[in-house]
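2024-03-11 09:14:02 DEBUG pipeline.ingest accepted 1 chain
2024-03-11 09:14:02 DEBUG pipeline.ingest length=744
2024-03-11 09:14:03 DEBUG pipeline.predict start
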Amino acid sequence: MGVDEIKSQGLSLRELFREVTYEVDYYQRDYTWGEEEVRVLLRDLCDSFKDWSANPAFIRRPGTAPQYFLGPFVYYEQSRNRRCLVDGQQRFVTLHLVLVQLRLMAQAPEHRRITDRLNRVIITDRGQFSVGISDHEPVLRAVSEGRAYEPVPGDSLSRRNLWARSQQVEAQLAEDLDAESLHRFTEWLLDRVILVGIRAANSDHGYRMFETMNDRGARLTAVDLLKSHLLSNVGAGEDQLNVQWQEMLRELATDREDAGAVSRFIKAFLLARYARTDQDNDRRQIENNLNVWVRQQSQYLGLVKGRPENFLQFVQDLLKSARLFRPILAASRHPKTDDRLEAVFFNERNGLAAQTAAIVAAIDPDDRPSDAKDKGRLVAAYMDRWYTLRVLHDLPVQSADADTLVHHTLVPLLRTCRTPADVASALGDLIQRDGLSISEAVTLGLRGNNAHQIRYLLARAAAFVEESCQRSPDVLAFLDRDRFHIEHLWANHHHRVASEIPDPVVFRSRRNQLGGLGLLAGRENSSINDLPLHEKAPLYARSNVLLGVIAPGYDRRNPLLREFIKTHQLDRLLRSFGPRESMTSVVQTRQELYLRLFHGIWDPERLGFPRAEQTQDEGAEEPVQQVRQTQTQTQTQTQTRRKAGARRRRTDVARMLDADVLKAGTQIVLTYRSVDHWAAIDEDGGIVLTATGGTPYGRVDEAGAVVRGTKTCQGMNEWHVEDATGERVSLRTLRDRAMATGVL
């Protein structure tokens, strides 16, 4: 290779990481990718995989499928099998984390082949990580071994961020991939995802390329090109609007590290005010190339040559909307209790970034700042409640579900609203029609992929009680999985309660219910998590009120707590438990307590929506005995009432229901260690275990894992339908037959 000669080559991830170690030079920045960058990367990868896997031809002949281009990177070779990254560190580190987490998910024996493939790209034969940044080593070791990383004083930004992003990757992959798709996704990722490597001649050449790429003028972005197009057509007001444009950039620059804030806001502005809700192509083009969409839709937008007043109005509306949105953007970075905008922060944290388009759709550029803030608060509160109700019913809460809600329901509705009262009335009507009830979540708890959501529910409940007792709740601490652990009131020892609960499936299900959980400071959890409840309860008294109240005598010197209990009529629920109280009684009592607290937290009237006629389900106190009766009934019958506004799950079982391959109420069976375990399929595609009843499991994998007592389960293989003759056919075989005949 000649001096300063540049070579390029397309490489799959399998080729990219096979027996090669990547390092970075001293001039490279830390690993700084945040939640949004990682979320977008994973969403794009998972969505592309789903498009690929939906095509039977690509499944039969993977080599014919189009490759997924993930962008270029620049490197030079230090020696054989050692490369130094000049540009691309953020993507490489994130991809390496994805591969590590996929290997952790593929621990079952049936995944041995894919585990072997992942081993070859994660670690070289010399035992080094493929992305061999020495500062990252302690975190990567902890992640790859499936244990928590314990931060130490003086940890770098890279280490702290790497640990945070590894947890995010773990949660998002678990949410997006079921056990059956894990193998195919990994194969697709390794073989069909391509990066183009640009090879510099040596380290000096690489450094000059780095300087050229970073110090000699940034490339024009879509926002720059849009600005040039708009301002060049506003006539005499160009100079004035250029000043205002710069002001908009300052308004939206709440975080120096968030260079994409302006682009995201302008996309949201176009989606909220101009994208046609019946044309998904508008959304795709705005997301991918907003300046091109504006040019192509010039007639529709009225942005045509010779009409400078239209360009002027468009730009002024954009700038005024940005100014009104500024407090809401700031609230997305940190809970803003003073402005009652904390739901904005919670939504961002829960992956509901689409809320921006809904909020901007409600805001009129000529609104008073107070009205714009009120509208934003109402929209965010509605979406927070929507998210909570879907979590309680184990319905999907992925970004695709939020996008559907925002662009198909909220944006067209909110465009017609003029005042905060209009917004409150419109969203209040939606709440009345959604048909989902908090009280029905009688058995919801920890499942295969919902730890993030369960932590959120526990954190909000704990903070609500703390605040009501005039303590200063640190909701950010409750949400931090390092600072507070999800505590099981009962250790994982079935033999301790076998006389009360003989069935181990019922024990595992009950132990993981919300009523059997709490939030405990990590330093406490690690030392007491194996003790019986009556021995742990006194130690809970040092924790938050919601967990501490379990300790006998906790409320004796706490008049504010007693007042809270009296005001909300929680005397039977928010209480201590003696050593003789049964596990079933404690869990069911605490489960009802949580549901009653959720009623208070997400009460529509409390959130600012019009008061509606109260029903027993949404307002009246429900006795513990009635909750227990409900649980008993659901053990023997399937939920048959379709909830208004609830979408079926995006699972193969739900698809088979839609195609009439399966019927609601179908009984399915899984045999494990010579024991048959039965369940029923509800109308939304959920799985209701006969042994436990209650809240359906969203995936057959999760229901199977509870039955088996294992971390994972290939549910489509292991659950079977039994016909009239007694022959059992797996759900996978049933699905494959339907696909082969074109029914599915």
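2024-03-11 09:14:41 DEBUG pipeline.report The two ends are 54 Å apart (CA to CA).
2024-03-11 09:14:41 DEBUG pipeline.predict end
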